[in-house]
From TrEMBL:
Chief place of localization: membrane
Membrane topology: Multi-pass membrane protein
Location(s) in or outside the cell: Membrane
Protein name as it appears in the record: Solute:Na+ symporter, SSS family protein
Species the sequence originates in: Actinocatenispora thailandica
């Protein structure tokens, strides 16, 4: 290991140690009533204000994998990698539309997960179980991907062993077990300050060293023009514009359906907090646009990945361009950026298991204290499962699974998002629609090869329309097609079931549940654990 790498490693360890200490101390932060209750351990007491929610949700949605994967995609494919920018612009008006209603109904009824809401809205344990399983399956590889970001940093510093990764996750598991959602909420402040500082310095310093943005874009254009076979372009080709648009829109729909997105929202103390955050969170989209430009900067700087691991492009660029001390700060930002979302995701997955599988099917009389214990233990298992994905399996497997995760979480859209707006759908129609969307989505993904990895199946999400017999070279996002099929089937099945007067589930919610706000007499306080 070179002297420069030693400096980078020492700075990274110091900063990591500082945030780990914050994570343990977070159990005392804001005077929690009783940590052995899911409202406290899993939702931070449902009391976070505007600033905490902004950092928490931002830290949750803009992950370490975003930090390394989006520029890596721009580095490899050019303009197509910028799809992440419009989708994070589109997502907030959508979230504004439905999540304030979810907050209200959840606070009146004590819902902790999206599946809790579906259970009460449609009177269907089966539908709630499907939503819970879908959420857990979609979240697991997402957690593993956070490790991919840390792994890329460790490789760049010359640490090829998995042991640093294992130690980092043991620390993460320990303070999440103790402090619950308060730990990532507190650490998110440090994470975001570091990332904002690194990106601001990066977009000023690196273009200055490379001769300006004009030179960077010229270098990227020449690079893609000379590639044989073609790998991408600085502007979208006509054949991938439909895929770009549907991928951006589909990803926006999927983002707020992930359980961890809902967890951050339910932890806020009022509807106004959510409204303010939906207005302010697009600031992160601006940051994401700057992060994406790192891909073009890496091309202009002549940066190359370690082996075939494209995710090492950004760490290699930092290592190449910055003095060692600042590269260490940047690496710490990526590492800490992985810990925040990984903690929230594991809590969200654990809450789904506890509320919608354990309590529903295994122990119906579980006390709040019992639920908290189960959730804590499951959050540990979820983290270790994600760790095994990286240590035992090829990281590409996690990337492929996360790709599938985006498609499958979209299939909860009719039950969760539309369920917040209307009770028109029949409960069994939603189950049938979910199954149809899953089936068509899996089939489409199965037919997509990945020429870069040599995989014949599950190699991407861009489905070629020529496979449907159409005379075109256009592609379309698989998840978008699958959820359209899901919706069509759910609508048709609802019409048929209503015409046949098939028994529907009872709706345990009322119209005014969806507009309740802080101070509403029916919004209960956090119960005392027994």
């Amino acid at each position: 290991m070179s002297t420069g790498h030693v400096i980078e490693l020492v700075i990274s360890i110091v900063l990591f140690g500082a945030v780990a200490a914050m994570g343990f101390w977070a159990a005392r932060w804001r005077k929690p009533g009783d940590m052995m209750h899911l409202d406290e351990w899993g939702l931070g007491g449902r009391s976070f204000g505007t600033w905490i929610t902004w950092f928490l949700v931002g830290g949750d949605l803009y992950t370490a994998y975003t930090f390394v994967a989006v520029p890596a995609l721009v580095f490899g494919a050019g303009a197509a990698g910028f799809f992440a920018v419009p989708y994070t612009v589109v997502v907030y008006p959508l979230m504004f539309l439905v999540l304030i209603r979810l907050w209200s109904v959840s606070h009146r009824h004590g819902f902790v997960t999206p599946a809790d809401f579906v259970r009460a809205r449609f009177g269907s344990p089966t539908l709630a179980l499907l939503v819970a399983i879908t959420g857990i399956v979609a979240t697991m590889p997402y957690i593993a991907l956070q490790l991919v970001g840390i792994s890329a940093v460790l490789k760049t510093m010359g640490l090829g062993s998995h042991w640093p990764l294992v130690i980092a996750f043991l620390v993460l598991a320990a303070y999440t077990f103790q402090s619950g959602l308060r730990a990532p909420a507190l650490i998110a402040f440090v994470k975001d300050l570091l990332i904002y500082a690194v990106i601001i310095v990066t977009v000023i310093y690196i273009p200055y060293k490379l001769g300006g943005f004009g030179h960077i874009f010229d270098a990227a254009s020449k690079h893609f023009s000379a590639a044989t076979p073609p790998t991408g372009s600085t502007v979208l080709g006509s054949n991938n514009q439909l895929n770009y648009a549907t991928l951006a829109f589909g990803s926006a729909l999927a983002l707020f359906l992930y359980p961890h997105s809902v967890t951050g929202v339910l932890a806020s103390k009022s509807r106004n907090v959510i409204k303010r955050n939906m207005s302010a969170l697009p600031a992160y989209s601006f940051l994401l646009g700057l992060i994406a430009l790192l891909g073009f900067m890496a091309i202009a700087a002549g940066t190359t990945p370690i082996g075939k691991d494209g995710n090492t492009i950004v760490p290699r660029l930092f290592d190449q361009m910055f003095p060692s001390w600042f590269a260490g700060v940047a690496f710490a930002a990526v590492g800490i950026g992985a810990l925040v979302p990984a903690a929230i995701m594991s809590i969200a997955a654990a809450n789904l298991f506890t509320r919608n599988i354990w309590r529903e099917y295994i122990k119906r009389d579980a006390s709040p204290r019992h639920e908290a214990w189960v959730s804590k233990i499951v959050s540990l298992l979820v983290k270790f499962g994600a760790l095994l994905f990286i240590v035992v399996l090829n990281p590409q497997f996690s990337i492929d699974l996360q790709l599938i995760g985006g498609v499958i979480i979209l299939q909860t859209l009719p039950s969760v998002a539309l369920g917040l707006l209307t009770r028109w759908f029949h409960r069994w129609a939603l189950v049938i629609g979910w199954a149809a969307g899953m089936a068509i989505g899996m089939w489409m993904l199965y037919t997509i090869p990945n020429p870069k990895t040599g995989h014949l199946h599950f190699g991407g999400s861009a489905f070629s329309l020529s496979k449907l017999g159409l005379d075109t070279d256009w592609t379309i996002y698989t998840g978008f097609v699958a959820v359209i099929v899901n919706l069509l089937v759910a609508v048709i099945a609802t019409l048929i079931l209503k015409a046949a007067k098939a028994p529907d589930g009872a709706d345990a919610t009322t119209a005014d549940d969806y507009t309740a706000d802080e101070g509403d007499p029916k919004v209960s306080e956090v119960p005392v654990a027994v």
